[in-house]
Amino acid sequence: NLLTIDVSLTMVSKIVLEKKPSPNSICALLSKQGTLLVYPDSTRLNMSLISLAEMHNHSSLMEAAEAMLAGETGYRQVTLNGEEHYVFYEALNEKHWSACIVCPESDIFAAYYKSRVAIIIAAIIGILCIFVFSIYFTLVQLNPLALLENSAERIAECDFSDAIPASTRND
Asked: Is the model more confident about 153 or about 164?
């Protein structure tokens, strides 16, 4: 059983362009021949993605376009306008169409970049706390040795005036 529905390209364009995964991403729909059917810049509609890549001399975008036309599913990293982007693509409708999303790397890794700063700050605070506590516990452990050193120095100077304190320890 097969159910088909005729939907206008305008309606498909509106749906696809509204559903962006990130604020700066671009969604596009390509025909089997690589013609842009849905694209945010309406002046580029009905233009071949390969000719668009050639026009801007983007070899990495050209590779992604060729992979889309071959019906592949995957992603490519491309540089557009000096900024790194990822192009995610998938063949649709038995490889007659391809859908792609172009996302700037900064959008994809924005949460990572924000958390990275917090992690670095937390690590620095943790290291400082370990340093302070290690110095404190070292001084506490060495305190009896410092008292013994003071007593030994007084005895070496023939100062026997201090009384020996009582101890509750058995060692």
From this structure: 153
Residue whose pair of structure tokens reads 């362009």 in the numeric block: 17
Contact assessment for residue 35 and residue 52, using Cβ atoms and an 8 Å cutoff: no
Identity (one letter) of the amino acid at 137?
F
Tell me the C-alpha distance between 88 and 54, whole Å.
19
CA dist 34 → 12, 13, 40, 53, 156 (Å): 17, 16, 16, 11, 95
Residues 37 and 29 sit within 8 Å (Cβ to Cβ): yes
Question: Do residues 92 and 98 make contact, with C-beta atoms less than 8 angstroms apart?
Answer: yes
* In the block, residue with structure tokens 């038995």: 94
Q: Give the other-Cβ count within 10 Å of 27's Cβ.
A: 20
**Cα dihedral 127, 129, 134, 139 sign:** positive
Residue 37's nearest CA partner among 71, 8, 4, 74 is: 8
Q: In whole angstroms, how far apart are CA 6 and each of 3, 11, 12, 33?
A: 10, 11, 10, 21
Q: Which pLDDT score is estimated for 128?
A: 96
Banded pLDDT at 158 (limits 50, 70, 90)? confident
Task: Judge if pTM exceeds 0.70.
Answer: no
